[in-house]
Amino acid sequence: MRGEAVIFFYLLISVMPLVQHPFWSHFVGTLTMTKIVGVVCLVYAVLHVSLRPRSLRFFQTSQARWFAALCLIAALSYVAKNQASEWEVSPLMSYVSFFLLFLLTLALVDSLVRLRWVLLVAIGSMGLASLYVLREWQKFHNVYREFRPGFVTGDPNYFSVSALLCLPLAFYLIRGRPKWERWFCIGCIALTLLALTAAASRGALVALIVMALIMAWRSRQRAGGLLLVGAFAIFISVVSPAAPVERILNPTHGDIQSTDTRKAVWAAGMRMIAENPVVGIGLGNFKPLVSQYAEPGQRLDKIAHNTYIEMAAELGLVGLVVFVVILFGTIHQLGEIRRRTQLAGPLLIYEASQGMQLGLIAYAIACFFVSVQYQKLFWLMIFLTMCLPLLERASKAQPVQDRPRWSWATLRPIWASPQAAHAPLPGHTRMPFGPPGKV
After folding, report:
1. pTM for this one?
2. DSSP H helical segments within 110-252, as ranges?
3. What pLDDT digit, counting tens, does each position of 221-255 carry?
4. Residue 434 located in a structural domain
5. Could you tell me how far CA 165 lies from the centroid of its own chain?
6. What is the CA radius of gyration of the chain?
7. Is position 431 within any domain?
8. Residues of the domain holding 214
9. In a domain, 436, yes or no
10. What is the 8-class DSSP label of residue 405?
């Protein structure tokens, strides 16, 4: 049973983008269905860690320690300056959930097999979310003018940022994989790109183009990659009248009004920071207090639509610095892992580090246009990065050996014996279930 229970962790990841799903966001008492699955995962993780031969040190990496510091700052800020918000839906509850996700990820992602499945489930979660977005667009784009789908996923901008985190992962996991896995990733990429076009996020478009340019520059055929980026930009500019390129070149009245509102909110946020530079105005207080910092005659009731401004305004410059260190420190660490594993392997970690790094670079750009510090997939990528050095060292400690060719029988260790499911894969195999060979 202990080996099969990990499926609840995969289920938890699969519904992360569906923040307003009628079932998964339904409250049972004080907990949503998603949080109930998280509690089941937590119980399983405690049993799993207790049966390990050696204790797990959760705070080995600098990112883990910085994340703990951010949670502490957020908790102190909420306690000291709470605006009487309900605990169940408060920002502090989000930080508690992220801390538990941190513990779950480091406790359960302890082999290359599990890392591979977590990445595939994350990619699949965006494919599932894309279906909801496309269905909403199909139903309502002819009903409402300037309609942008994204209700089940919370908001079209939130969906777009989550998509940016998973798209490069899907791209790098295509090569050298079993046929079903290649088609799975290709299908998720196609669905996600179509949904991104329907969501029409201008900030996401900028981040996506930068990400695509980096991917093209890193490829062996740079010229061909750059041509593909240009062709893709042209495609999304003409495929839909609501495409983000169209919103940039020919903004509607709603687009202009949205831009003006964001400028006003950013200015109010900067005034918040100037008046409360060290500790901020308190966790979750930006929207309730933003009208007090608006220009005379302005009526504002919005979040910052800029992650960096909102973090600095609520948690002070101290909180912003910690958040920036986590984000850009993780990007730097992924670059180091990518360089180490490019030749020495394991290949899965090399591919994962490339995809996760590009996703976080795109996220860092999108942060300028939307407040996304509470995105669950973002924190999952941060926590998975903390697992990579441990998995890299564990794989290098295994003897080099060839693995049999992939077959359906090789799926059995995932669901069957815990020992087989948890065993690290050889460090120099090309992939967990792939053909034999050395990196």
Report:
1. 0.85
2. 112-140, 156-172, 179-199, 202-218, 222-238, 244-249
3. 655 555 665 566 556 555 555 556 566 666 666 66
4. no
5. 5
6. 22
7. no
8. 4-253+302-400+413-422
9. no
10. P
